Amino acid sequence: MLQITLGIVTSVGGFLEIGSVTTAAQAGARFGYQLLWAIALGTICLIFLVEMSGRLAAVSKHTVVDAMRERFGFPFFFIVCVGIVVVAFMVLVAELGGIGFGLQILTGIGFPWWAVPISFVVWLLMWKGTFGLIENGASLLGLVTLSFLFAAFRLHPSWSSAGAALIPSMPQSGKAQYGFIAVSIIGASISPYLMYFYSSGAIEDKWDRTYIPINRFIAGFGMTFGGVLSIAVLIASALALQPNGILVDTFPQAALLMTTALPKWGFYLFAVSMIFACFGAALEISLAIAYFFAQGFGWNWSEDLEPSKNARYAFVYTIIIMLAAIPLVLGVDPIKVTVISMALTSATLPLAIVPFLFLMNDPIYLGKYRNGWISNTVVAIIILMSFVLAVISIPLQIIGG
Amino acid sequence: MDAALSWVGTAGMAGDAWLRHTTPDKYTRQTLDLSGQTLLQIGRDLRKSPRPAIDNAMIDTALARSRSHIARMSRLVVEKNAPDFRTQLDSLRQDQKLVKQLADSIEASSK
Amino acid sequence: MGLVRDVLDKKLMDREDCCMGRVSGLVMHVSEHAQPRVTHILIGGPTPWMRIHPSLGRVSRWLAGMWGPKNGEAVRIPWSRVETIGRDIKLDVEAKETGALDWEIWIARHVIERIPGSGSEEEE
Fold first, then answer.
1. Which among B8, B16, B20, B23 is the top mutation candidate for probing chain A, defined by the most A β-carbons within 10 Å of its own β-carbon?
2. 3-state class of A192 per DSSP?
3. Per the structure, how many domains does chain B have?
4. Per 3-state DSSP, what percentage of chain A is helix, strand, and coil (rounded to 5)?
5. CB pairs below 8 Å between A and C: how many?
6. Is the pTM higher than 0.95?
7. CATH number (domain holding residue A221)
């Protein structure tokens, strides 16, 4: 059962983080329940992608990056590396900023002052911690985000209206903004670094073919956990913030999300939830970037090894965490970085998903565990969607962002 | 005007939360100050794009009154003066209704 | 066996199952009177960058000469040292002796091991 923690930490760190909370809160505040379908769609896509990543690792003993480098060669790997790592780095800045914001609203001390201590703690956990400690610790801490679900229930939402919102519909006004938030939600959900982290985690946890059924359960349960919590944020925002006309352009506005539903503890639970969720995300992204380089270039890598035994891998995460602190120290607004990174994630999705379709159908890696027609259909739809998102995300950001 | 309504609403909700002892003083004061500063900027931006159907003086007055109430609320947080704070909050709620009416009028006239 | 499919970009492991990097390139001997044959595996250096564009190979060589172990050339492993080609390529060599881990060792000694808690203290 502890294996479920890989699913939860992937979900909490990858799904429920500053991007998804911000976009879900904005969606609820501006459009009520209308964008629920975007979160549901993102969740379903992610369940399939994460399950496939785990299956690839368990059967072939290759991570997604390993397989991509071998199958497509160094030039293609390098193009993907640049696209994915640049965007992942921006998301890392946003996550560290999210932790800073959480501490800011609790203490009144501005987030730039927290940038260095937070980065140090994230780095220290990676330096001294094992994969198991990070996985289980982040999962346990991430359970505090269940408070979003509790708050949503306390506000007595209309479940029939919420259910109806699972069917996409256009709003009367603000269509460009609606489109932008929908794209951002899907970009926040289907983040490629989740696949790289999950498949690397499966190798760290030494999965084999016997883990295939568990993998399905973990992917389904874990990603649904994150998706449900995002939906809870949207509902809470729709019921608590929208009636007050609050549009959630800044983090201090989002902090009011649970104050109506949970008068005594709501504010503090929000802050702590954001701190832990963004902390998990920062760890996950740092690991994903370091894994990407190490696996792509064929270095030694494992969170369970001491840093001196996988020096280049440790060097990469040390440098990126240090660099990620710099924009925050300089006062760059993490929310702005979040918004831009969500749009760029959508724009670079094809780079990650298209090669993945080939890998999941390659008999050399997967043998009889290759994708069936259902998985292939879903991936094909995701690829189509990713190309549409890639084309419209930047223009929508300019018009509706 | 949606942005103005959002920030008046933010100040109001933050004020409510403070009165219920839901939020700490520092956060409340910082949010009120941020609301006031943002409303000032919104007022400046609105003056640059005047709307002939709406009296800009009304918008200026509504926003100025809101800012004034918010500024007083921020000082009252420091003094921990809940009764006067509640009075200012009630006045801010009246301002919020006026800002909402103006926002609805602008939206109706742009259609 | 396909060279591109089964060899190029595959991970290399030494006698002790230590990662040595990936196959960046292959050296082949081509002559009129015999079948072309692979003579060496190339690891790192400017080789992978040259596959994108030759100028990147030159930049890589120049940068590698400025910093680190100051070795900008690819490591050459004789093809005769290949033991098995499967999921990874197993070589009958010791990674440290080939030069494939020069960067790993340099970064470990000059950066990582200077930070407390790197795990190098236990070996002293």
1. B23
2. helix
3. 1
4. 80, 0, 20
5. 74
6. no
7. 1.20.1740.10
